Amino acid sequence: MIFIVTVVAYLAILVAISIYKSRSVKTQDDFMVAGRKVTWYFLVGTLVCTWIGSGSLFGGAGRAFREGFSALWMSAGAWVGIAIVYFLAGRVRKIAQYTVPDILETRYHPAARVLGTLAIIIAYLTIASYQFIGGGRLLSLLFPGLDPAYGQLIICGLVVIYTIMAGMMSIVTLDVFNGLMIIGSILIAAPLTLAQAGGWSGLTATLPETHFTVFGRLGVLPALGLFFPTFLLLLGESSMYQKFFSAKDAASARKAVIGMIIGVVIIETLIDATAIFGAGLYWTDPAFGGGTGTFTPEQQKTTETILLQLARHNLPVIAGSLLLAGAVAIIFSTANTFLMVPSTNLARDIYQRFINPQVSEKNIILFQRVMIILLAIVAYVVSSFFKSILDMALYAYTMVGAAVTPALLAAFLWKRVTPMAGVWSIASGMVVTIIFGLLNSLGITHWEYDYIIYPAATASILSLVIVSLLSPPPPPEKWQPFVEEA
Predict the structure, then answer these.
(1) Are 96 and 248 contacting, i.e. CB atoms less than 8 angstroms apart?
(2) What are the tens digits of pLDDT across the range 116-154?
(3) Per the structure, how many domains does the chain have?
(4) What is the CATH number of the domain that holds 356?
(5) pLDDT digits over 157-172, tens only?
(6) Among residues 141, 475, 125, which one has the least CA distance to residue 314?
(7) Angle (CA) 381 386 388, round 5°
(8) Which residues make beta-bridge pairs with 38?
(9) Which domain holds residue 229?
(10) Which of 55, 68, 174, 463 could bridge 428 with an S-S bond, Cβ 3.0-4.6 Å?
């Protein structure tokens, strides 16, 4: 009973605070970028919570259960990406737009804005959808008679209420608290789980030797296939840039990146480690693979719930309750951001830019709230097209990492990149990713999503370089705002 009370109470607190914060929303800046007044420590909290989502809680943890510490290659891509972002954060805040497509149009062409918006919407709805899946699994664990599909619907509805009330203002306010909950719960869970698994000696005796090697059982290419999608996503992560726009100044944005590196490294390492410790307890359980080292699709889904299983059945009640509350924090803090960003893209980059440039502050906020509801419905439907959360994560990461990131980085780092090259880069990365996903969804191909980044990123980068070199150099006014230091 205490598990149910903890989760329900935490959900109620999140929604109540969001409703309270809605009274402070007066302008487009308030709703989209929290009034551009966010201090660095609040920014750290919201950046960490945005990145640590169901992809880590379920997809990454499931991979760690099945393959061991080589699953950290997925997290390592983000760590390297964040370090590079440190050098861009000040420039991004100086430009002070609302969205990444704002940047793409300023540097390239209106077509780049539209294509970038489409890529971000596709990716972020996929990410939002597996937050709903994760929430549904959590509720079905607490209420065994509840169909996970209905659990998804409940979480979807609560996230929508949470997001439409105060937008980015509620997100950055609560994410500091969510971040502390996530760190505290996993710090307690990790050593307790390792002790139950028989300590390090018990763990190494139970799990395959490859669980403790650098590249694991699958080898180098799959490991890098985890690294590059997260690396490229992080560099082009639209919600992160939108939160940089929320910072009160460039210095705050840079400080927040340092805090983000520390927070993400600690949390993701502990999540994967705890899942591996959990594998020491469940490795021979038939529902989790039966100790064979091979996993059916249904067993893969079960391994993705390992942290919830530990919280509900293995940890002491208080520690288990905290971990479940941390899971709620992870799901909510990510789901609301990944509805907030594409709704901002539709409101700012399509409606306000091309359809109704003179729209009032009140009406643009209303339009965005309606978009949040519609996008949540679409995200709920999208969840049926993939066999696992990890596949969904890699698809979404590649959509942004291949379609948006090369053009976005070139905007800041390469004076010679041309408007036409930016458009072609975004289009080619997006098309290749969509084709890969469609062929798999229709059953025509059965390629592993570990490899999707290779063709998609290659197409995008080649388009960027070749078209730039074959077209006239851009005028200085196109690149000067992007290369000057803040």
Answers:
(1) no
(2) 989 988 988 998 898 899 889 888 888 888 888 899 999
(3) 1
(4) 1.20.1730.10
(5) 988 888 887 666 666 6
(6) 141
(7) 120
(8) 247
(9) 2-381
(10) 463
